[in-house]
Write a structure and sequence with these properties.
single chain; alpha/beta; Rossmann fold; 5-stranded parallel sheet; 53% helix; binds adenosine-5'-triphosphate; binds (3R,4S,5R)-3,4,5-trihydroxycyclohex-1-ENE-1-carboxylic acid; binds magnesium ion; cytoplasm; Shikimate_kinase/TSH1
Amino acid sequence: MKQPSLIFLTGFSGSGKSTIGPLLANSLGYDFLDLDKEIELFAAKSINRIFAEEGEAHFRDLEHTVLEKLVGRTELVVSLGGGALQHNPCFSLIIASGTLVYLHSSPEILAKRLSHKTDRPLMKGDNGERLSKEQIEKKIFALLEQREPRYKTAQIIIETDTKRIGSTVEELTRKIERYVRRAEKRQFVNKPKKHTKSE
Ligand SMILES: Nc1ncnc2c1ncn2[C@@H]1O[C@H](COP(=O)(O)OP(=O)(O)OP(=O)(O)O)[C@@H](O)[C@H]1O
Ligand SMILES: O=C(O)C1=C[C@@H](O)[C@@H](O)[C@H](O)C1
Ligand SMILES: [Mg+2]
């Protein structure tokens, strides 16, 4: 069954899912999990190593395996990886089991945030080499174009470019609380009634 209070944070790499997720969970009084971290624990190796040794397809399968364990959880914020929605089995699972929240950011801001990070294998060159800010920006444009249609299926979308982290957390807390309250009420009203023997 779909659990409105199982919150999946999506958005491009660098949009702030891992930064905002724990703060948001704290503000909502929910638990928190970072899918990338859970995969690293499950596989007992870093994401960089999983990509280098087993390839992206294997990493996507791991995302699905770890996600499956979360179905049915309530009052939980999950920060997804930036590409999790591109794998059809993961996308279906997420849509069917919780509420999707999209942290929207522009390619320019994403490139600025990602240009100093070394732990995003997809933001490196074909041979694992470091890319310039301009090259990263080009890669982000291309990937974002492919990924955005699925990000935009989210029930809640928030702009992050012009907001401080604290403001994003505050605004999301309000939006999520309202969304979950309404969705749970709808589920309660639409629940089929049990028939007693005399009926
Ligand atoms: N206004 C802002 N909102 C969100 N993050 C910001 C903001 N300003 C700066 N940042 C920085 O941008 C970075 C976002 O990285 P983070 O790891 O949270 O992204 P992510 O969405 O989890 O990426 P990935 O998909 O690769 O896991 C952090 O270093 C964060 O401090
Ligand atoms: O954008 C992506 O496809 C990725 C983002 C990260 O969160 C990690 O899940 C991994 O580096 C892949
Ligand atoms: Mg992250």
